[in-house]
Batch of 2 targets.
Target 1
Amino acid sequence: METIKTAQVYKQMLKWQLIATISVAVIVTVVAQRLGLASPEHAGISALAGGMSAVLGGIAGALIARSGDKKNDAGAILITMLKAEAVKIFVIALLLFLTFKLYNEHLVPIALILGLAASAILSGAAFIGLDKK
Amino acid sequence: MEAVQYLATIQAYTGIGIGLIIGLGAAGACIGIGIMCASFLEGAARQPEMIPALQGKVFLLLGLIDASFIIGVGLAMMFAFANPLLSVVPH
């Protein structure tokens, strides 16, 4: 029977999230430079901030979810997963709030949303890696 | 209409929009998570030996279902802290 532990899933998720975040940051910087925007580097940093919020939220969630690996009861596992998801959303919301508050002057909101969206959606691509195994 | 009135109108409608983005996004994510958790519990009850194999996939799918909600929260924060619609109001 195939056994996929949370740590294994998380490694795949982290890999895809980092690839997505860095790719979007580079693309956004290049596009901003081509369009002649005033601050292409701030667009890249904004995309990185958005993507890294999702990555750090994922790390926080994975730390909580790891404790469910030892449990055998389906209900207990599910409650641990939901707790992990709640922590993940809280951390992401907090980091986004801090980004909008502290980096308000140079923030490029569209770049931040693009980085966040790419990182959040592409975490699901970890299924590809898991299916290969 | 004066600039202040335009500003107030845009902010009021933006507030409603932010509420709708977060509320509908949360409702959709909750429905999706509810369906997935029910399926997981059903599968675990039928074949308890599948629990370890399903556990990782449940965690992954939880993240995928919540992705739309997280993007919604990001968009809502953008409208709350750096509303691009306010740029149409003359200074």
Target 2
Amino acid sequence: MSAPIIKVDAISKSFGAFKVLDSLSMQVMPREKLALIGPSGSGKTTILRILMTLERIDGGHIQIDGEQLYHMERNGQLLPADERHLAKMRQKIGMVFQLFNLFPHKSVIDNVTLAPMLTKGTPRAAAEKRAMELLDMVGMADKAKAMPAQLSGGQKQRVAIARALALQPKIMLFDEVTSALDPELVEEVLNVLWRLCAETDMTMLLVTHEMGFAHDFADRVLFFDRGKIVEEGKPDEIFRHPKQERTQGFLKKIIAAGHRV
Amino acid sequence: MTQWSGYFGLILQGALVTIELTLMGSVLALIMAFLAGMGRLSRFFLLRALATAYIEFFRGTSIFVQLFFAYFVLPLLGLELTPLQAGVLALGLNVGAYAAEVVRGAVQSIGREQHEACIALNLGRWQGLRTVILPQAFLVMLPTFGNNAIELLKATSVVSLISLADLTFQAQVVRAQTGNTMVPFTTILILYFILALLISWGVRLLERHLARGLDGVRV
């Protein structure tokens, strides 16, 4: 039995008076595929943003790969992490955003090579070779020279995935990566996720409203509501036999809205 | 009938001085704009305070007084400037203060999602600024920078008051020597306009060049 790669211990986070995460704890094992579901405002996106260091926590501890994320150990004491420590920890984590967040002034390939060249000092030639492999993997190699504005939403998202992969993170965070897409473009992105699942051993956390996909893809599903994990378990348990009333209510609403489970 | 050709020569010499002043002033203004504009966005209170003080002071006092101060008062403090140096200094600092707010506004207009992408890709603060934020912000700044450069061009006429032989100065010389008011001033009116037009075109050309490939909105 290996150690968890993500260990979240009693973290809390408030935006003003609104408590988004309330003493939340969870663990993720290496290579695990985790789906985070729940109503909007339930804190599921916030936990991803916290893991990517886009939001700070108000209390609690997070360990990534055996190391503290927001704290540094100095002479046996835990101090708040400085920028250098955060930069080191970020190497382990990649994130793909709902709205892609591509750099509009850079071509597809430059979007992918930028971070490896700047943060790892990878020479351009090597970075481009690797970028072409990744673009090939997401089916975007023929658009390497295109600008983001020339791409469809699904294509942009696949580039964004390649861009995050270029840094070779151990953990990938997917924040509603298909929510902004036209329905007919959702599948091409989900197919890339399947491919990642098959060809890499990354740990993957997905916040998603694609319940059917979450069911098929995830090893484990967490149902969030009001800043807490209300229920967790194997996809079949959560989707077919939810125990908690709130989970049942949420799934009923989702099915009524036409999503397949 | 006055022999105008010699006088036109004078006015053309003045145009060269005006152009020189505009170019050098713009370079200084651009440097100050970025220093103060980024200073306004700094995490450090001292930098923010310095930048704010500079911007408010130079926007809040008249360019005439600033020029006179540079040319007549600084020598009293031991800093002797040529009319050209004083002109470039006053114009650059004055217009730079306005342009600094353009830099600040443009950088702030770049969406949070671009900053977040930088963090997620582990770019350092400066790396993200240099490769992601500023190149996009620069495109936002350009049209207003064009305005600023035209303002600077027109403001150069104040240097005639410290005896720098720019367009306006030469027009007054011609007027004094010929007694004709209409011809010299009409001529420089047109010349200023042509110079301003050239700046407009140049900026628009640069904008179009830099916006290639970006979303259609900004082209």
